[in-house]
Amino acid sequence: MMKLHEAIVWAAETHGDRRYEYTNVNYMAHLMEVLQILASIGVSEELQIAGVLHGAAEQNGAVVEIFKMRFGVRAAELLKFYIKGCDTDNWRWKKQFILNELELADRDTQILVMADAVADLRALTFAYLVCEERNWKKLKVTKADLSWYYSEVQDILCDMQDDETAGDLYWEMVNLYNDLFVTYYLDDEEGILYQIAHGLYGYAMTREELMWNQIEDQIPEHAEVISRKEAESLEELWTFQKEEPVHDETLEGNEILEEAISDFRKNEDKESLEYLVEIIARRIEARGHVIMPVEDGVEEGHVAPRTITTDDGEVVIAAFTNQTEMKKGPRSEVLSIRIEHLFAVAKELDFVGGVVINPWGEFMYVGKDLIDIIEERVELPEEDEEEGELTFEFVEIPTDKKLLN
């Protein structure tokens, strides 16, 4: 690692008081961040050396021959990538030279450019957090030009998204870019998501098509600005809801339970409640299942059910009679569980008030008192064989209050 140390010393002495164009701090801070990024993904020493020296190659291509003798042929070969653009002071032309060569460059060179881009985007993000929109006015480069360049880099390097070594770095680049340059809108009435990259084209996705398509029309005035995380969560939810349900034999027969719940919600009288209690008891006797959202599924007999806190502060276990009802809410891992086992878990825990069946739609709250009444009417045959014991812990479901009736 002595050559890497020598490269750091050489860069520090050579760049001196040079300022980094995006933050106006000493330029070595940028080079050290590029080095840290490369080291964190375990690349070769030659590639790390190139990361430290790339700024010098951008300024003066002649130094690459010196680097060959001092730091090795491989480091110099990587730095040759930056030479073609070093003769122009025009920022956009300089970056265009890089883009022209990037697609055909070898993997190490692509990783070097990506590490440089991530370091740039991190710095721009930090500066934006401090100065907000005023930050763009302080730069010599326009926000539109920056948006153009980093958009092109991520498009050219899209194959890196699944790379075992650099995949996480690629997605950090994408997320940083989106946070800085992309504005997201939601037209809730029509079920349309929009994303507009600054200075570039806009795209729209409908709840039905689930494909991003370039748009030419203006965004509706009533569309609401949302965060990237909100947009990504909504896209994931729409995709989840669109997926074809997998047939689950354990849920067969729950249609009559859904009808009984619907009848009770309409009438809310003693007769419809009596009928609902009877139906749940019969479903238990038939070994009926419901779907329970869990944190990590089942692993070595351990289950982590998700819970909901109601508006009045009561903690309840969520359960669903079918996959369609489940898909109305947040996506989650799930477990098909027998109804009597679900009730047993709810009764065992003091902080749980009961169970809510189909909480995002036509729901039914089954408190512990009602569970006792239901269980009195159940006559279960003896188990054919002993079942493995499950242990439980609880994780709360993050919910949109608009989903709760």
Q: How are the elements arranged and paired?
A:
Layout: H1 2-15, H2 27-40, H3 45-59, H4 63-71, H5 73-79, H6 91-102, H7 107-131, H8 134-138, H9 143-156, H10 167-181, E1 182-187, E2 192-197, E3 202-206, E4 213-215, E5 224-226, H11 228-242, H12 254-267, H13 270-285, E6 289-299, E7 302-309, E8 315-319, H14 323-326, E9 333-338, H15 339-348, E10 352-357, E11 364-367, H16 368-376, E12 391-392, E13 395-396
Parallel strand pairs: 7-12, 7-13, 8-10
Antiparallel strand pairs: 1-2, 1-5, 2-3, 3-4, 6-7, 6-9, 7-8, 10-11
Helix pairs in contact: 1-3, 2-3, 2-7, 3-5, 3-7, 4-5, 6-9, 7-10, 9-10, 12-13, 13-16
Write a structural description.
There is one protein chain. The protein is an alpha+beta fold and about 400 residues long. The chain folds into three domains: about 1-180, Hypothetical protein af1432 (Orthogonal Bundle), CATH 1.10.3210; about 180-240, no CATH class; about 250-405, no CATH class. It has helices at about 1-15, 25-40, 45-60, 65-70, 75-80, 90-100, 105-130, 135-140, 145-155, 165-180, 230-240, 255-265, 270-285, 325, 340-350, 370-375, and strands spanning about 180-185, 190-195, 200-205, 215, 225, 290-300, 300-310, 315-320, 335-340, 350-355, 365, 390, 395. The strands form two sheets. Strands 6, 7, 8, 9, 10, 11, 12 and 13 form an eight-stranded mixed beta sheet that branches. Strands 4-3-2-1-5 form a five-stranded antiparallel beta sheet. A hairpin with a 4-residue loop joins strand 2 and strand 3 (about 200-205). Mean pLDDT is about 85; it is low at about 395-405.
